[in-house]
Amino acid sequence: VEAALRQSQKMEAVGQLTGGIAHDFNNMLTGVIGALDMVKRKRASGRDADTDRYLDTALTSAHRAAGLTHRLLAFSRRQSLDPHALDINALVSSLQDLIRRTVTEQISVDVDLGAAEAAIADANQLESAILNLAINARDAMPEGGRLTISTSVAELDPDMAAEDARPGRYVVVAVTDTGVGMSAEVLDKVFDPFFTTKPIGQGTGLGLSMVYGFARQSGGSVRIQSRVGEGTSVKIYLPAADGAVEPKAEDQPADFARGE
Ligand code: ADP
């Protein structure tokens, strides 16, 4: 419990700090971008190709920096959760196309929808969590491979339930890749905000900490299994709703013949 608590306090503090800095930084960038745009417009009649190129470079960088501050702001702003019983299979199905378009052509995307129960979670947050994991999987397979998204129901018995999750029934979404895998050192730090092994501009190091924060806020957790050179499986555990996933209206029999 303590480690989980420390982790969430750390994220809270980092979130506040990040939000403050990102906000101020964004205001400054707005000034820089505005001024650069102005100079560019005033020069439109002049024909100094070099200076135009420098201006474009400066503008592109400033816009990139602004993009980063927006991502940081989104991270620090705790989106309010609206958890309700969710058909996780339907949610994963609806994301399939987007995920296929997000990964490279050398990556096959498989879906295995085995969860027969609803989860209690916020749909938007769960979507962005799954997308985050899919992007990580893509980045781990630069030469291609297989990305599998599967859903299931699992029982965490008291032995398996670690410090951050109670024993009970969970709906599990697993995102598995056949990528580079993670060393023990990386695994140790993956949930730390801003921990990234990716080049500047490519990784913010916020993906997995957001996924973890979301799972914890939902009353669940995240488990990672990884092997260097073989691949990684990230599982989001979400509390199972009581009872089975409600079939869609058109699947329901019109009437129950009781044979009376
Ligand atoms: P980011 O993706 O921006 O780096 P994350 O918090 O999502 O931030 O991930 C942190 C680090 O964890 C990554 O930089 C990478 O080293 C490692 N990682 C995450 N997912 C995977 C994966 N599926 N396979 C291998 N390494 C991963």
UniProtKB/TrEMBL annotation:
Organism: Caulobacter flavus
Signal peptide segment: none
Domain Histidine kinase per the UniProt entry, residue ranges: 20-242
Name of the protein this chain belongs to: histidine kinase
